[in-house]
Amino acid sequence: MFFANPIYLFLLLLIVPYAVWYVLCHRKAHPVLLVSSTEAYRFLRRTWKQYLVHAPFLLRCLCFAAAVVALARPQTMNSWKQTDVEGIDIMLCMDISSSMLAEDLKPNRVKAAREVAVEFVSGRPNDNIGLTLFAGEAFTQCPLTADHSALINTLQSLQVDMTQRGMIEDGTAIGMGLASAISRLKDSQAKSKVIILLTDGMNNRGDISPLTAADIAKSYGIRVYTVAAGKNGNARYPVPVAGGVQYIQIPVEVDERTLKSIAETTDGKEYRAQSTKALQKIYEEIDQLEKTKLNTKKFSKRYEAFTPFALIAVLSLLLELLLRITILKRIP
Fold it and tell me: pTM of this prediction?
């Protein structure tokens, strides 16, 4: 518990001289009724009223103490906190072209990439992370954000058939996707800026070549980790037909040479994911490579908590008055 006005707590020291004054006055009190001898009352048992003689004094002290604490404005903190972090800014750059529906990674490439990305985001609570998607064109699905729950919701709601439904032009514009991610990181003040580029094909769309985009990333101090998704050979691919889905085998054509060049140009690393488990291990390795010592400042939201003390003060005062006018009423 914290106090907004702790200086008022010094008023509690007044209870000490008041207690001394009360004791002295009580000892010097003169009897109201004079008798020749008290010997007859010597062995009488004390009544419950006698035990309440000092109750008004105690209630008055409690009332004063509770009122002082209420004036000091006690405050409590809840579990909410805001974190100011000097860490890493990461853009996930994900291929969503139609070939990403191939099922050599389970359940398919884009779903596997999505699920692993969610685990990756969940494991880095102190970083700003964003999401760029690309096929024949590129766009930012989620800008850099520390609200990872919003990013995870975006990933989980990502439609895996956007190209088939005509929501985005099909193809593989690696350079455009990389350039879109760079545009979100170029003005970042973070100590480390990273792009994780995942694709399963060769660049065949866009006005910016992948190597040109890599040079741009290097000029901004952005490191790119490239991930080539898909097994060597052929992959099982679903084709919608009347009344259902037909599966065919399509060749896996990943331009690993270009992806390797992008990684080398930007001081990153190139990976090949031929299974969902391998993709998961790749993200785990990237997670270990991009560890940074963070300086964190924590701010806690406070709530006023003076109400119980004010209530205690009022009840103590009322109880003291009630005792004085009833059970402990003095007769002159």
Answer: 0.63
